[in-house]
Structures are given as structure tokens and as C-alpha cells.
Amino acid sequence: MSAKPLNFVPPADFHARARAALDDPKLRKSFRGAMDFLQTKRSVQFPDPDELERLRDIGEAVRQHALARLPELLVQLENQLQANGVQVHWAQTGDEANAIVLKIAQAHRAKTIIKGKSMVSEEMELNHYMAEHGVSCLESDMGEYIVQMAHEKPSHIVMPAIHKTRADIGELFKENIPDTPYTEDVDELIQTGRRALRQAFVDADIGLSGVNFAAADTGTLWLVENEGNGRLSTTVPDVHIAVMGMEKVVAKLEHIVPLASLLTRSATGQAITTYFNLISGPRRGDERDGPREVHLVLLDNGRSQAYADEQLRSTLQCIRCGACMNHCPVYARIGGHAYGTTYPGPIGKIISPHLLGLEETADLATASSLCGACAEVCPVRIPIPQLLIRLRTEANRNPAERVAHPLRGQGAKFSRSEKLVWRFWSGAFGHPGVYRLFRWAATRFRFLTPGQQLGWTQHRLPLKPAPRSLADMLRERDQPE
Q: Of 177, 142, 175, nearest to 160 (Cα)?
């Protein structure tokens, strides 16, 4: 099974996709119900606000401690994994990471890869790259399996098929899985998917997974899942390849425990997930199962750009729980596909500019009300609204301006005419005499106000000065301005 790539959507198309989503009542109803459900489940898991804030403090401290020592910890992780028998590969870009996976597959004459859930592999467009080179990739996470079958991309980083209804999935299984009758019963649908996937684990040449966290001190890869497909993907095939963003490393194995507690409760409202998989190497001589060969691919793909800037570095604290999406009023109304990026919602708005450049993502930073709900629920306290403002600043910065850590695509929305307007505005308000003259002219010549005022009048009445200013009315009453 292969999926058609949903390539990144240019900024001009983001608005069209968002409008289409807003005009889809079925999608809006589905997402509103799902987001309300997830918000409630999360709140139930954190009944004690003091305990939640203490845990958030610990989570933030663990992630910031790791990021402060990131280069050192990555080297330590590599050395420890190699001592454990794991082969470590470094990739600067998604294409380099894909080439590494392909080389491993070709060395084993592999034709099939069974995949556990991995957003990094989505980021790499791994499935499509491997298909072009004769290697088939099959998603085994139920949500990923559904969207792959539908030739779509995940619309949520934790629940990939959250945009699908039971009826959608029932019809999809009926059309694509032989001898499958239509049903909307959730248990029957899950069992149908599991039966279809079971033999694929045995037949696959390679198992591939993501990594939730990696402990540098022990060389341990920590994978979180609910279905058991991740464990099957990493133990049944003889070769296991893990792909990981370089920011997922932490200093010590014990540091992962509070992060895991925050992750599961923030993501799906569970006290704990069904499976925690800890992988420290290939099968030992006296062990009866597990892969005989393990590889880890460490991917940069723009993360070093975020790391280089002290403020933007906090973007890399993310543990991929999706809580910011579940509480975002914009995401809840347009869904994940409107963004056109691997990571949608608030976290996608702040990480995608580093992965893709501001030229492709400048409009995403402005697709926010800056209400702050994302920051309020982030388990590791990422200041998302402040980062969005910073990215807006960089997108509107003069591309010729020299800064300490320029972002790729700096000045993507830079406009000289807009800069002149703001310069005039600030000058007028900075000089009392000029301001009074401007105020006098605005009230006397209000009839010249244009009816169309760029984006403002798409959803609002045009701004028009009042016939008399407040200062004029105060003067009539002999009151000072």
C-alpha cells in the first residue's frame, strides 16, 4: 500500500484550504466534538492544579537541561548506543535520512518495511521515497493505517485519523480490505484492521519506528504506544530502524519518567499508555526474540537553526503531545490538513519555519488569535505566543538586515510600502503638532476613506474616522484633552 504525497501547501493556498474547512460543516462538527472530548479527558487527569504545575516545572527543567547540553548529549548517546551494538547515522536533511534508510534496506535486499508511528518519517516523506526505489512501506498504527489507505496525511500528530468518522472508516475498509462488510462498530473496525496487519509483521523485512525520548546515559530509546504495533514493528523483523529528531535526547533515563507522565496525560487523557518500549540494543545471544540489527537515524532538518537562537530554542522542548492543538480555537475549526505541513496547529506554526523556511510558512504564524491557550496547556511550558510574534517579526524583517541568527526566508512578507505606512504612523503619534494636524484632516476629509481596506474588510466594516474627534468634543465642554 502506498499513499500519494500531500506536498507542502504554498502560503497562498493556506487561506483557500482554511476557507474550505470552515465551509465544511461535517469537518467542523467532527473536530469540535473531538477537541471537547480530549480537553475533558486531559482535565480529568490533572485534578490537582498544584501537582500539574509542579510536574510542568519538572518537565520544562528536564527539556531545558537537555537542550543546554544538546551537542554533548548527542555524542554521549551515540557512544553509548554503539557500545550497546546499535549503528548510529547522522542526517542533515530529510533526503539524507531517506538515503540512509534506503541504503540499509538495499543492503538487506528488503522489499517491505512495517512501520510503527513516526512523525519524523512523515516529515521525511519516507514512504514515497522508498516506494520510488521499489520498497513498500506499510503503516501499522491504526490511525496511520487508515490515512495511508485513504491516500491522505495525518491531520493530528497523536491521532492521525481524527478527521475521519466511523462511517468514513467503515466505507474505507469495505472498499480496500477483501471480504470486509460495511460496519460502523468501532470494535469490529479495530479487529478488522488488526487482522489485516497481523501477517504483515511476520512478512516484513525491516521494522521502522520513531523515538519519543532517548537517554544519553544508558543509550536507551523510549517508545510510547497503545496498540502493540510499535513493539511488533521493533521486535519481529530482523532489522529495526529508528528515526529521531535530534532534540529528543535527555541526559538520564530517569529524566524520561516525568516527561512520560506529562505526555500520556496531555495527549490522550490516560494516566499511562498501554506500552512503554525501552530499546537499548539488538538481540543478545541468549535472547529468543528481537531484531538482530538496530539502527538509529538522527535527523537535523532545520532543528539546528532553532537551536542556534536562544529564544527560538524553546521550540525544541516539545514532547509531541498535541495538547496545544486540542485547545487551539483555530485548529479546532480548520483541522490539520489546512496547514499543509507535517506538524499542524500551534506547534506546527513554530517548528515548520525551521523545517521548511519562512518563504513557505510565513502565513502560518499569523493564523493565530494569540489567545495563549496553547501555552497554558503545554506540559513543558513552551511560550508559543511569544514565538509566534517573533516569527512574525522575522517574516516582516528587511531581508537585507544583518542579524545574529538569520532565519531561512527572513523577510518573506517584507513590504516597503507597509514599512512606510508604519513609519508615518509612528511619526505622527510621536509629534503632538503633527498628530493634531492629522486628526483635524482625518475628521474633515473622512469621505475620502477607501471602502476596501486590504484584509480588514474581508470580514469587517471599513474603518472610518468619526465626524468629530474626542479632543474636539472635550474642547466644546471646556475640558482639557
A: 142
Which strands sit side by side in the sheet containing 293-299, from one edge to the other?
A: 87-91, 293-299, 239-245, 206-209, 112-115, 136-139
Give the pTM: 0.90
The neighbouring-strand residues paired with 215 are 220, 250
| 239-277 residues labelled b (16+ CB within 10 A) or e (exposed) | bbbbbbbbbbbbbbbebbebbbbbbbbbbbbeeebeebb
Rg (CA), the chain: 26
HEC sequence for 440-479: HHHHHCHHHCCCCCHHHHHCCCCCCCCCCCHHHHHHHCCC
User: What would the pLDDT profile of 396-428 be if each residue is shown by its tens digit?
Assistant: 999 999 999 999 999 999 988 888 888 888 888
Q: What residues does 209 pair with on adjacent strands? A: 242
Q: Which residues pair with 298 in a beta bridge?
A: 90, 244
Element at 283 (helix H, strand E)? none
Are 251 and 73 a contacting pair, CB within 8 Å? yes
Specify the DSSP class assigned to residue 9.
P
